[in-house]
Write a structure and sequence with these properties.
Elements lengths: L1 E6 L4 E5 L8 H20 L13 E8 L12 H11 L17 E5 L11 E4 L7 H9 L22 H4 L20 H4 L8 H11 L7 H18 L6 H11 L1
Parallel strand pairs: 3-4, 4-5
Antiparallel strand pairs: 1-2, 1-3
Helix pairs in contact: 1-3, 6-7
Length: about 250
């Protein structure tokens, strides 16, 4: 979390953040979001953000990361913690906001809460990665321009999007797969502690050893091992986080 300040006297954007904030991956995303925001504002509003324009100071709260980190009130009384936790997981009896609606807006560059009742003034912004925020920044700086990662993948653009017309692969050529596009690894277990990632030795390796069968052909043995591993994963399906559930579906497909 940080506060972006535009200082008209120096014509500079400055990011303020707490020295007590633990430096981690989300902080790099915060800095990247700040740079993209500052550049985009200058590109879109050149008269507003220019030295000698006579415009007032501007302050904007921003945050970034895989998920919004909001204090649930730990250490401030069990009743408050329970009320806040129930609010965030949807067990609240009334329809009041978890966070007061009159607080300053926060631009959240990352996953935001689905329900507007949780944090009414949080505004979901593009994800801080090349094919999201960077493409918005490109469009802001060069109106009408489309960044390469949103254009078709061709010989001169290996990072572009895949279309049948440009790569020569049709629907029937694709391998069945299931993709979980959620950043659940860092927070979901806090709401559902029983969900976990698989442990190979406990969930798969030990079961393969106990059911090992000798095969003459290597191809048959490899296929049997994959099928046995998939069955072993299916046995612990209900204990796994969503992204690993999708891996099981893909393996079965």
């Amino acid at each position: 979390f940080g506060v972006v300040i535009y200082d008209p006297s120096t014509d500079k954007f400055i990011l303020h953040y707490s020295n007590n904030m633990k430096w981690k991956g989300g902080c790099h995303k915060l800095v990247g979001s700040f740079r993209a925001l500052a550049h985009s504002l200058r590109s879109m509003f050149p008269d507003r953000f220019a030295k000698g324009s006579g415009q007032p100071e501007l302050a904007i709260a921003i945050s970034s990361g895989d998920y919004p980190e909001v204090d649930l009130g730990i250490g401030k009384g069990f009743s408050r913690l329970r009320r806040n936790r129930n609010c965030f997981i949807g067990n609240k009896r009334d329809h009041s906001a978890c966070v007061p609606s009159d607080v300053a807006p926060v631009l959240q560059f990352g996953s935001a809460f689905k329900s507007p009742e949780i944090y009414p003034s949080m505004i979901a912004m593009p994800m801080p990665q090349n094919n999201h925020l960077a493409c918005f920044e490109t469009f802001a700086a060069h109106p009408g321009a489309i960044c390469p990662m949103l254009l078709p993948r061709v010989r001169g653009n290996p990072r572009g999007l895949v279309f049948e017309e440009t790569i020569g692969l049709g629907w029937n050529d694709l391998i069945p797969s299931v993709v979980w596009r959620g950043t659940d690894f860092s927070y979901l277990h806090r709401f559902y502690p029983r969900l976990r990632q698989p442990n190979f030795e406990r969930d798969v390796g030990s079961k393969l050893e106990s059911s090992r069968i000798e095969y003459n052909a290597k191809e048959v043995a490899a296929l049997a091992t994959r099928e046995a591993a998939t069955r072993a994963m299916r046995e612990v399906y209900d204990q796994l986080i969503p992204r690993w559930k999708s891996e099981i579906w893909t393996a079965e497909a």
